[in-house]
Amino acid sequence: MYNSPVLYDQSETIKEKLSFNDKRKKHLIIYDQKAAGDVKQALTAHSQEELNYEPFEIEDAIKLQDLRTLLYSQKMGTHLYIASNWDHAATVFAEATEAGFTEDEIQTVIYGPKRRYIYCMKCYHTSEISDGDEVQCARCDAYMEVGPFFSKVRKGYIGYPFIPN
Amino acid sequence: MFKSTNLDLFTFPFTNFKNKTYRYSNDLVALSEDKVNFMKITPEYKVQIKRKREMLEEQPEVRYQSFPHTMEMQWEFVELLIDLSINKYPEHFSVEKDGDQWTFTNHILGETETFIFGDESSLSLEPYDMIGRHFHNDFMLMVNRDDNFYLEVAQESFAALFSPNWNLGMSFNEIHGPVPFVSRDGVELTDRIRKFLLTIEPGAPRTRVNWNLMADRWDVNYETMDIWGPERDKVTAENAGKLVHLRVEEQWFIRMPRSNAILFVLDTQFLPLEDLVLRPEWLETTYFNLADIPDYMAEYKGMAPFLPQSVEYLENLMNSMKVK
Ligand code: HEM
Ligand SMILES: [Zn+2]
């Protein structure tokens, strides 16, 4: 869907650490090696109660076919936890929303830096940016102030053009 | 640049006076039966259409955006505009229907559009884009889903701070993110107005008037901010009468009966401040309202750098009229 949620640095799904949502019937945990230790710990801490969970570890590269089969086979009431670096999380998030998960049903814990993107209002190109309030467009070189508004369709923050003096 | 020449057709934006100056509010009002049809042909019609079409030709990505799944709604829009235009101006517009074969004639421009209703391949433009080019308004289609409205088609040439390209797919709330949308008493307005929009029914559109000032500039959008941003500084109390224009957007919100979408129609009109002398009561009301605009609103509207000069100009103008 064109207005599917996307993962961005201010996504409401992003949490500091894993915490299970007790209202859900089932917990699907997709994680990579960086997060493996924390995931195990969270599960042990929760072991008194019976937790219906299914873990899925991402090896070096994501096997998309396996991931899709897993996501599409989930029933209603499954809560998805993604614990990984940014790139893995972005892939899993996109596949999950494609498979019908809404933002309310996803929790994301990011290991390492988050990526940020800007949408250039001069040439309509989305490009990655580092920290800072002022950047230059990777395609047309326009100077832009990074605005606070994000478009799910353009997948970036608005870049207000200005001419430096 | 066009300006309104028949002031009887100009929508003066300020209805309040002195002790009740302009603030954001839920200012949507109902329309009497004779006013529900937004069609309006003014002396500027041909200039506006020419300008609108130039912009659509030169900047298609900036001025027109749609999602591919909107075709059925686009045809509903085509039918609506043809009906409204013929109802109001049978001398200017007509249609002939032979089954699905339609021929729409614009007699002012001497143009005909022939197409098979419901079949996009019978047109070189998208249906919404084609019919929209016969009317000087901007048109935004907001699709109603899950108690919100999402922008799915937009044709825009004149509205201020509006980008079809940037706003495509956004909800009513996301679109109004940049607006400091609070009432005089500090009430948050976005959700309140979104809920109000849900109650609009087919056949009973609502209207409101938005306004802004612009400095020697037609296009005030985010795409060209680098250009108009610095230009605002050249306004002085001496040249404001010519450079600064009162920019009025008369707006209609129309519920589409088949798709349930809300069609947002804008009629943008311009009047240079100096022309306010033609209506002294407008001059005075404008002065009182502009003199009381809070900083946060002036900042958002982009007129902070030249508002004081404009107010000073109006004050001088009023004084010189009293002297005479
Ligand atoms: C439903 C269709 C509507 C659409 C597509 C729409 C779109 C927009 C856009 C694009 C802006 C500029 C935002 C920016 O700066 O990026 C805006 C501003 C604004 N809108 Fe809406 N709007 C709609 C309905 C309404 C309604 C119903 C109201 C009020 C009752 C309203 C009140 C305002 C106000 C007060 C502003 C600030 C404008 C200014 O101060 O110059 N809008 N709108
Ligand atoms: Zn660019």
Automatic annotation (TrEMBL), chain A:
Residues 118-159 form the Dimethylamine monooxygenase subunit DmmA-like C-terminal domain. InterPro entries: DmmA-like_C. This is Dimethylamine monooxygenase subunit DmmA-like C-terminal domain-containing protein.
From TrEMBL, chain B:
It comes from the Bacteria. This is DUF3445 domain-containing protein.
